[in-house]
Amino acid sequence: MNGINATTQFSGDATGANWVVEGHPMIFENNIVLTMAPDSVGTVLTATRYIWYGKVSARMRTSRGAGVITAFIFLSDVKDEIDFEFVGADLGTAQTNYYFQGITDCMPLEQTIRIRIIDEPIDFNGANISTSNTFENYHLYELEWTPEQIIWSIDGKVGRVKNKSATWNATTNRYQFPQTPSRIQLSIWPAGLPTSKQGTIDWAGGLVNWSSQDIQTYGYYYSIIEDVTVQCYSPPEGAKIEGNNSYIFDDPSALNNSVVLTNKTSVESGINITSSATKPSCSAQQKLIRRDLPGVVVGVATVGGSSPSDCPNPTYGGDFIQGASANKNGAGTVVRLATERMIWYIMIIVLISTIAGIVL
User: Fold this and answer.
1) What does the CA dihedral 95, 30, 191, 47 come to, rounded to 10 degrees?
2) Looking at the predicted structure, is the pLDDT value of residue 295 above 60?
3) pTM beyond 0.85
4) Active-site residues: which are they?
């Protein structure tokens, strides 16, 4: 997979890699297989470039089994997030979520009170979409993100719409809606570990069974990614445009109106507290295709049902933490700021970039 580097080999130069990976991806019939073997925390594939509104589609099959989670998400450096998540114990459901700066419940207090008084339907961050078996069948999952709404679709059918107007919080005087440049992530990870909180284990359908059919046959749990299509949208109306190379924040609020499109290639000291996020080209749709993955052992995952010897138990180069920054090689520095609440910001010190499309 030309254009995909192990995280430990990624210097922050987005022109040298379109994706970074932690864990062990494999190749099967021109598809990417994300694996999760025993004593690992799975695999995450993260785009090195950022998208600030657009439409991304992933045609994929999820993993299966209690405690095993497959995810397709957008994640920003200030933890704005939009996602599809799939619990391996419930293969007929796609879970959809959105988060603003890592807040797990974005519902305004006044709306919560109204729901309790007059018994209105509850619409927190999450909602489910029913579909056919996500492990046995390929589905096309689509996230469309605009300044005014998020649309989750499966196989071309809209399953959920979240309007920005519904996220206004009068207490904080802001829209608690994802609004900052984000990276695409695809992952498989174990929520059902003995070390997880009980609520997480319950949500995941129980503990991971490390003696399951897939572990016995292949040596790992897996999710298969057939292709990913990316379409970037233009910056929102009124955006601060001072260049066309990178995104920075000029205000610690990290809201939509604090994002600046600049020609900077590295983070400077002072108020610019996020990474110089590489701006993707808004060119035609492009796809993730099979290539060689330098520096990482790539086996041929015979997921179709061959002997375990054809599916070698992978050697993992490193673990990842779901929802954390993909860069663990020292190029990332975490700083803590005092805003309304303490928010983690990821600062990538070296990010040499040019405008280029996301080649998936």
Assistant:
1) -80
2) no
3) no
4) 81, 85
